Amino acid sequence: MSKEIYRVAIVGLGAVGKRMLTNMKAHPRFDPVIGFDLAPDALDGMAEKPAGFDLVTSSQALFDPDDIDLLYVSTPPQSHAEFVYGGLEKGWNILCEKPLGISLEASEELTRAINDHDVMQAVNFVFSGAPAMHAARQHISDGLIGTPLGAELTLKFSTWPRGWQAHASWLGGRDQGGMMREVGSHYAYLSQELFGPLALKAPLIIEFPAHDQAETMVMAQWQSGHGPVSVNARVGGNRQDIVRYRVLGDEGCLVFENWYQLFHETPDGLKPLLDTRAAEPLSAYMGQIDQLALQLDDGGKRLADFADALAVQRLIEAMIR
Q1: What domains are defined for the chain?
Q2: Nearest of 138, 215, 157, 189 to residue 313 by alpha carbon
């Protein structure tokens, strides 16, 4: 399909859902027109209420329109399948948050179901449209760091959930939340894109403060065809958060700092590889929406699909279950 403007329905208007709403409203190719959240005041606190966006009071009402092109599912993982199936019944294209669900079996079934429907499918991994990932892939191909030797992922958080997500208590639970599902999964996807399929190597060190609470420490290794990816993650300490991913090479390294900044590292120091604008989060968010529009236009795969997300989910669940 190809349209000048795609009409969007959004379910789940927490921090991430509202961010997508704002960015899609600012994009010339999308018009979010209807949404639903269990909290009737979900849009409170937005600097500017989106014009022409109807927040309905029931999930049933969300599926009443017949002129929607895309459903964005941004609820907690346990309800992703419910809304994806609802969108498929309407014949809507689907953009879903990760993980696909909390059960691998259910996520496998969901992936089979969406593959059986003639709709566009995509999953929101932020690196899909990020200049940092696309630049890194090109620099690796060009030989900037020589032969890739794997990567290092370092995650350090003062608290979990992070302060800006404190309202989403489910992120602190073991059944749906945790730093590996919420943050580590993005870097598992990035690793897949750079190195190919991943597998968890035993042994694994992981700590849970209580049986129903999310992990607070993880030390692990993902195996790839281009060397191991080490994972070092911890919650605790009155500190600044650290989110860092380093691609190792025998002639240098590429460092993803604080998600979207990209540096070339040698023994002489760090050299930025992106200009200031390209290294901003907004460039990644809008770049992803650009790719989404193109994917809707011609059907060509540009963003992560459900199969990609399922591979990430299998890896992450093998670590934390």
Answers
A1: 6-119 (3.40.50.720), 128-280+311-320 (3.30.360.10)
A2: 189
Contacts 24+ apart (CB under 8 A), 169-172: 170/76, 171/214, 172/213, 172/214
Main-chain phi, psi angles of 108, to 5 degrees = -65, -45
Name residues whose C-beta falls within 8 Å of residue 225's C-beta, 6 or more positions apart in sequence.
195, 196, 197
pTM, 2 dp: 0.95
Q: What is the 3-state secondary structure (H, E, C) of 257-292?
A: ECCCEEEEEECCEEEECCCCCCCCHHHHHHHHHHHH
What lies within 8 Å, CB to CB, of 54 at 6+ separation is 33, 34, 35
Gap between the Cα atoms of 298 and 101, Å rounded? 28
Contact 265, 254 (CB under 8 A): yes
Instruction: Kindly report, residue by residue over 136-177, the tens digit of the pLDDT.
Output: 999 999 999 999 999 999 999 999 999 888 888 999 999 999
Structure tokens at 151: 């990567």
Neighbours of 210 (CB within 10 A): 8
